[in-house]
């Protein structure tokens, strides 16, 4: 066995070996694999060809079977119709036979009636079976028309049959059962035609012409309400498809999305109204349905606007809302020519959204007002703002001017987003919110003034004020900025926007007859008067803290003390032939002069404001003196001795205060009234202590001339002294003030005479008001 195995592995040369054996023993495995793969590929190719052939054969067979199925379906329908007609025929035959039998019996029973020729009877009154055959033929004809979807021909045939057939009208000599059966079959075909018409209308690809024809067909069938409902439903679906295409653009063009959406919605409403009028006429029922449907669509429109609008606190949201109001109200005005008045409903639905956008935008404006970060580059500063406020921005006051520019930029940015119709319908709301923002800004400026804690009426601000005004020039700059914004910049900015609205209303009238709009100069003036109290609060705070800093020393002691009028020897009163006001009032005059000099530089060109401030400061001094109970308590204390010279000095001080106002050229009427009340009270107080004023006091003219002379002396001393200053803790005046007696009142500007202070009654001078007087 071993030798045979070796022979197989190593065959001898002499032995002849077949080629197949050699190939199987020595060819490489790779070649063998390739050959095997080729064979498999050839087999696979044959299988694929067989499969393709089988698929094509089976597909053709499938198509053939499908066609046969369709044909079979038609045949089944025809067979069903045939069976139905045969059944009706059999039933009619039975009914006819029964009727003929009854008639035959009746004819045999009535012998007195004349006999009639059967042939003539047949000619005059054909058998009922013939009429039944006509009905069956008609019904079959209708079935064919319906199967072929020839709705117009079917409608005409049904309409003609309904007009001409006595059976369908409920008359004739046929039995009740036969009539009801035929009528039921007729109504069934009519319902089938109605279903086909509804299917045509509900097709998305139906054309406008085809839809109108179909709706007219439904009206002929007596289905007017259904046709109108389908009209509204079809246009609703058309609108929804258009909106679905538009919705992605709300993120790309947020500001114009609402305008495009309003165009789609109101265009469909207009189209539907026109189609309803052309198809259904002026029927009030259909007109009311159109109005109700349009109101639903407007509610849907407003909901879409809210859902797809930008964030309500952004400027984009305000612009989008304004454009929405402008576009939608314009379309509403166009619809009014078609009898649709939708403006009021639209405004009712839009108002909460618009007010929310306005509220959040003005909240954002308030945050920006106190934000130390620079404003967005898109907010361009108007050159007019720069030229008007830059005068207050020198050196340390620059941040104050920047705050005013920031305020105006924020307001102008909001106003620029408004459209004419938005201003027309929401102008009052906008003006109110601008006023609130201005009030907030005035509160911030009050916080920037010294001693804000003394103002108990000031609402605490949560925002951090980025600036503080310490010097007189900085405080006056704050007043100048506030006055410029109030008197010039803010009214001008609003006037420009409101003029655009007026011009737009003149060019294109809108539905505004029922809505009042603040579009006149008178309305803006009224609004400006509403801003005045906020500025007055700032002005009063400045005057109050300024006067209090003058009256009270750093140690809290009162410089304007009643004891300066109680000196027994009168040395402190400077009472001689050249009497002068008391030292505190001389210092007041000097301090007002210094403030007027600073105001002339800081408030250059604001002469009106300068006079108002100086007048208010003078009023504040006499108001404090009038209301200070501790001051009057000294005179009313019986344990403290008083002298007539004290009353004389007090009256002279009051006259001097009034002459300061007159000399400076600012309104003095209120100062006069309050000073008169102080003099009257002093006279009563001293009289109650046993001093007779009539015997001690000179004439009123003497006080006036002495006060004028004192002003001249103080002015001369100021001009001659290089360093004329007031020490607030120790009131000191130069010696020259009390020596020069050569000046007369004639050197003063001519002033109007006024009533005697001493003769003023307290009843006429109660509760003097702090208002801006006019000469």
Automatic annotation (TrEMBL):
It comes from the Eukaryota. Transmembrane segments: none annotated. Keywords: Exocytosis, Transport. The keyword Transport applies. Residues 107-127, 505-524 are annotated as: Disordered. One of its GO terms (biological process) is Golgi to plasma membrane transport. GO terms for cellular component: exocyst. The keyword Thylakoid does not apply. Residues 139-342 form the Exocyst component Exo84 C-terminal domain. Belongs to the EXO84 family. This is Exocyst component Exo84 C-terminal domain-containing protein. It comes from Castanea mollissima (Chinese chestnut).
């Amino acid at each position: 066995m071993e030798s045979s195995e070796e022979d197989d592995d190593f065959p001898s040369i002499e032995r002849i070996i077949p080629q197949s054996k050699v190939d199987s023993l020595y060819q490489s495995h790779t070649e063998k694999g390739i050959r095997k793969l080729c064979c498999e590929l050839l087999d696979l190719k044959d299988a694929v060809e067989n499969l393709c052939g089988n698929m094509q054969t089976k597909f053709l067979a499938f198509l053939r079977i499908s066609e046969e199925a369709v044909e079979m379906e038609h045949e089944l329908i025809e067979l069903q119709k045939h069976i139905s007609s045969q059944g009706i025929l059999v039933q009619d035959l039975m009914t006819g036979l029964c009727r003929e039998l009854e008639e035959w019996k009746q004819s045999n029973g009535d012998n007195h009636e004349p006999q009639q020729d059967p042939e003539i009877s047949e000619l005059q009154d054909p058998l009922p079976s013939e009429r039944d055959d006509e009905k069956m033929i008609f019904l079959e004809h209708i079935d064919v028309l319906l199967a072929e979807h020839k709705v117009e021909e079917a409608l005409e045939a049904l309409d003609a049959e309904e007009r001409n057939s006595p059976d369908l009208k409920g008359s004739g000599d046929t039995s009740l059962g036969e009539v009801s059966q035929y009528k039921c079959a007729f109504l069934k075909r009519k319902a089938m035609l109605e279903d086909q018409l509804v299917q045509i209308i509900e097709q998305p690809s139906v054309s406008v012409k085809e839809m109108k024809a179909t709706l007219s067909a439904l009206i002929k069938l007596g289905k007017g309400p259904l046709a109108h409902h389908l009209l509204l439903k079809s246009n609703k679906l058309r609108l929804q498809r258009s909106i679905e295409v538009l919705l992605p653009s709300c993120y790309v063009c947020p500001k114009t999305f609402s305008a495009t959406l309003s165009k789609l919605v109101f265009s469909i409403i207009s189209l539907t109204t026109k189609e309803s009028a052309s198809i259904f006429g002026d029927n009030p029922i259909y007109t009311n349905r159109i109005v109700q449907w349009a109101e639903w669509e407007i509610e849907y429109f407003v909901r879409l606007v809210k859902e797809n609008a930008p964030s309500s606190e952004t400027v984009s949201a305000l612009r989008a809302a304004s454009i929405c109001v402008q576009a939608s109200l314009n379309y509403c005005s166009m619809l009014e020519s078609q009898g649709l008045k939708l403006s009021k409903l639209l405004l009712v639905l839009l108002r909460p959204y618009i007010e929310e956008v306005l509220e959040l935008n003005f909240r954002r404006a308030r945050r920006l007002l106190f934000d130390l970060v620079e404003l967005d580059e898109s907010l361009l500063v108007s050159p007019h703002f720069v030229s008007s406020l830059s005068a207050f921005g020198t050196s340390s006051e620059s941040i104050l001017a920047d705050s005013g520019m920031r305020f105006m930029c924020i307001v102008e940015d909001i106003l620029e987003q408004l459209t004419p119709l938005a201003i027309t319908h929401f102008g009052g709301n906008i003006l109110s919110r601008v006023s609130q923002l201005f009030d907030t800004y005035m509160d911030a400026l009050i916080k920037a003034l010294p001693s804000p804690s003394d103002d108990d009426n000031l609402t605490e601000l949560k925002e951090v004020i980025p600036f503080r005004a310490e010097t007189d020039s900085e405080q006056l700059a704050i007043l100048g900025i506030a006055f410029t914004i109030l008197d010039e910049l803010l009214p001008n900015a609003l006037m420009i926007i409101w003029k655009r609205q007026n011009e737009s209303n003149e060019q294109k009238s809108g539905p505004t007859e029922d809505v009042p709009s603040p579009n006149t100069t008178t309305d803006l003036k009224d609004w400006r008067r509403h801003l005045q109290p906020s500025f007055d609060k700032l002005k009063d705070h400045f005057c109050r803290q300024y006067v209090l800093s003058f009256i009270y020393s750093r140690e809290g002691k009162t410089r304007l003390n009643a004891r300066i009028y109680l000196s027994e020897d009168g040395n402190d009163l400077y009472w001689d032939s050249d009497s002068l006001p008391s030292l505190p009032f001389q210092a007041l005059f000097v301090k007002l002069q210094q403030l007027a000099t600073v105001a002339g530089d800081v408030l250059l060109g604001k002469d009106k404001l300068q006079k108002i401030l100086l007048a208010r400061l003078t009023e504040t001094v006499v108001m404090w003196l009038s209301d200070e109970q501790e001051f009057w308590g000294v005179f009313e204390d019986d344990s403290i001795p008083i002298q007539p010279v004290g009353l004389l000095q007090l009256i002279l001080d009051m006259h001097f205060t009034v002459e300061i106002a007159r000399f400076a050229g600012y309104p003095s009427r209120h100062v006069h009234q309050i000073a008169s009340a102080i003099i009257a009270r002093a006279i009563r107080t001293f009289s109650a202590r046993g001093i007779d004023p009539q015997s001690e006091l000179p004439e009123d003219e003497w006080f006036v001339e002495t006060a004028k002379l004192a002003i001249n002396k103080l002015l001369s001393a100021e001009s001659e002294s290089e360093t004329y200053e007031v020490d607030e803790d120790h009131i000191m005046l130069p010696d020259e003030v009390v020596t020069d007696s050569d000046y007369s009142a004639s050197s003063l500007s001519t002033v109007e005479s006024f009533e005697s202070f001493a003769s003023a009654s307290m009843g006429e001078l109660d509760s003097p008001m702090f208002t801006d007087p006019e000469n």
